[in-house]
UniProtKB/TrEMBL annotation:
The lineage of its organism: Bacteria, Bacillati, Actinomycetota, Actinomycetes, Streptosporangiales. This is Trans-aconitate methyltransferase. Transmembrane segments: none annotated. GO terms for biological process: methylation; oligosaccharide biosynthetic process. PANTHER family: TRANS-ACONITATE 2-METHYLTRANSFERASE, TRANS-ACONITATE 2-METHYLTRANSFERASE-RELATED.
Length: 217
C-alpha cells in the first residue's frame, strides 16, 4: 500500500500531465532542477538498494554487443557511469530534463568522447540516432495520465534500432500499470520480466525487443 506522501507525489505529477506536452516538459525541468538543489537527492550513488537494483537490471540483458546506449532519465549519471564501465566500447548518451543534474553527471562520468549528456525530455525529444540498448528506469510515473504514457511508449520504441533492446525498471506493483503501455505498443515485444519482492522497495525489470514484422501474405 503506497504511503500518503507517495500518493501525493504521484497526484502532483499526474496533475502536471493536464498541460500540453511542451508545457509539462517545461514545468518538469523546473521541478527537477529544484529537486537537485542538493546533490544526489535520492542517494542513487550511496543507497545499497539502488546499487543492487543496477546489478539486477544488468543481469537481464541479452548477451550481445551494444554499440549505442541511451539512459533516459539519467539524473546525475550514477547508472550511466555503471553502463560506461560495463560497456567500455559503447557510445552512451544520458538524457535528463534537469540541467543541474546533468552538470553533476558530467563531473561524475569521464568525458572521453564516447559518453555525453543532453537535456531533453521523453515526450518532446526527437533523436537523430537509434540505439541498440535503451534504459528507462524510475521515470514513467512522472508522466501522469494514460495518454502521456502511450506517447512515451511510442517515443521509446522509436529510439530503437530494428533488433534493439528496451529495459524498463519501476516500482512494483505500479510497474504493472506503467509497463502495460509498453506491452501494448505494436512495435515492442516483451522478451522477459521479473518482479523482485525480497527487498524494502519491490521493483520489476521488464525487457523488450523490437517486434518482427509479419511476412507479406
Amino acid at each position: 500500500m503506497p504511503s500518503l506522501p507517495e500518493i501525493l507525489h504521484r497526484t502532483f505529477f499526474r496533475a502536471l500531465s493536464l498541460l500540453s506536452p511542451a508545457g509539462q516538459a517545461a514545468l518538469l525541468r523546473h521541478v527537477f532542477d529544484w529537486l537537485h538543489r542538493t546533490p544526489d537527492p535520492w542517494q542513487l550513488a550511496t543507497d545499497s538498494y539502488e546499487q543492487d537494483k543496477y546489478r539486477t537490471t544488468l543481469k537481464h540483458l541479452p548477451v550481445r554487443r551494444y554499440r549505442r546506449i541511451i539512459d533516459v532519465g539519467c539524473s546525475e549519471g550514477v547508472f550511466t557511469h555503471v553502463l560506461a564501465v560495463t560497456y567500455p566500447d559503447a557510445e552512451i548518451i544520458g538524457v535528463d530534463v534537469s540541467e543541474r543534474a546533468l552538470a553533476r553527471a558530467r563531473e561524475r562520468v569521464p568525458q572521453d568522447g564516447r559518453v555525453r549528456f543532453i537535456r531533453a525530455d521523453i515526450l518532446t525529444h526527437r533523436s537523430d540516432q537509434r540505439f541498440d540498448l535503451v534504459f528507462c528506469s524510475e521515470t514513467l510515473y512522472y508522466l501522469g495520465r494514460r495518454e502521456r504514457l502511450r506517447q512515451a511508449s511510442a517515443q521509446l520504441s522509436e529510439l530503437l534500432v530494428p533488433d534493439g533492446v528496451l529495459v524498463a525498471v519501476h516500482p512494483w506493483p505500479e510497474a504493472d500499470r506503467l509497463h502495460h503501455y509498453l506491452d501494448s505498443h505494436a512495435a515492442l515485444s516483451r522478451l522477459t520480466g521479473q518482479v523482485y519482492t525480497a527487498t524494502p522497495r519491490p521493483f520489476a525489470v521488464t525487457v523488450y525487443g523490437t517486434r518482427t514484422a509479419p511476412p507479406p501474405s
